[in-house]
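Standup notes
- DV: blocked on the single-chain target, sequence here:
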Amino acid sequence: MANVIKLSKGLDIHLQGKAEEKLIQLKSNGKYALVPDDFEGVTPKVVVKEGDKVKAGDALFVNKLYPEVKFASPVSGTVSAVVRGERRKVLSVQVVADGQQESVDFGRHEVNNMSGEQVINVLLEAGIFGYINQLPYAISTNPSVMPKAIFVSALRDKPLAGNFEFEVKGQEQDFQTGLSALSKVAKTYLSVGVNSSFENYRDVEVTVFDGKCPAGNVGVQVNHLDPVNKGEVVWTIGDPTVVLFIGRLMNTGKVDLRRRVALCGSEVKAPAYVDMLVGEELSTLLSNSYDENRHVRIINGNVLTGCPTTKDGFLGAHTSEITVIPEGDDADEMLGWILPRLKQFSVNRSYFSWLLGKKEYALDARIKGGERHMIMSGEYDRVLPMDIYGEYLIKAIIAGDIDRQEALGIYEVAPEDFALAEFVDSSKLELQRIVREGLNILRKENA
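- DV (later): unblocked, structure below
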């Protein structure tokens, strides 16, 4: 019987456009790109050049600080471009896929007979180790520090989030193999939602989190199960598809970066799921899927933590949703915010819409207000189910008080843990950016 942890804090935002559990088939245009910025904390060193031929599983770039951490090409083909930005920062490594796909064969592995070190070496060689993150700092982990525990979240509860149980259907053996492989490295916790079918997996400690968003955040789960203290490291997998990547590698000996993506949002004509490879160009997916005459925002990810993109963008390494919502820059509302209304969502019941219960809203991307002084109102605490003082931590980060940040639990948090606090914040502060900058400064100080 799994442990159950009930969370009283949080907020569920019900939006229009949730993906229907049906799979649509799309033919790829053959353009792929691996984006280093998808792997937080990684300084890329490109190991291919334009015109090189690669197989699926060959490294496109490595982590400059830990060269043994490779990042594999999702397809076989020809390297078409190494795109750089300011100060020659690597923005992406692009590959045009071959018609006939070839993969590097890393050999099948019997996980039950492997040690933790052998598991790590296989993941490093195949170029998928970098998909595992760590706390503290919420960055792509490195193999030089062993974790005290590994945390996997199979609960997706952000607005319009894809259903992982639908994704894993038919791949249960790969998921079990991935969990068993991780358990060879350190004690592994699997966190699931209420009435989940994942409670019977072996080699892991299963915990049910019963509560509103952000109960699915791996940082929230770490905080309640085994908090991180200074000097400790835990590995985190908030994107459970990574466990499938690991399981497929062990069972087949090949790198398979397929993931099931939810095409969702109020602007999407027919929200559904599609199987795509990491780094696949989005133009095929988004063609004719929404009214291109409307002002929309395309988000690589969910509405709380995703990044704006375009039809020419590429599927992120940890992206399980492509969301299309109204931009809102063409909205013309009489009397502005002061008019009572039923079609707008309000946390503090400023509108009468709260009388309608779990109504689904078509929210747009407007901030609806300007940045102003921070008010100590307790807003963050109501949606942050962690044993930390969120407002005080944000103030300590802004002030640059490192000792205070450590005392207030910065080692336990990731930027996504403050996504809901950013949504409800009446001061309109970019809390996720503030937390990320604070973590980066702290990492440099402790290096």
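- Follow-up: The mean pLDDT is 94.
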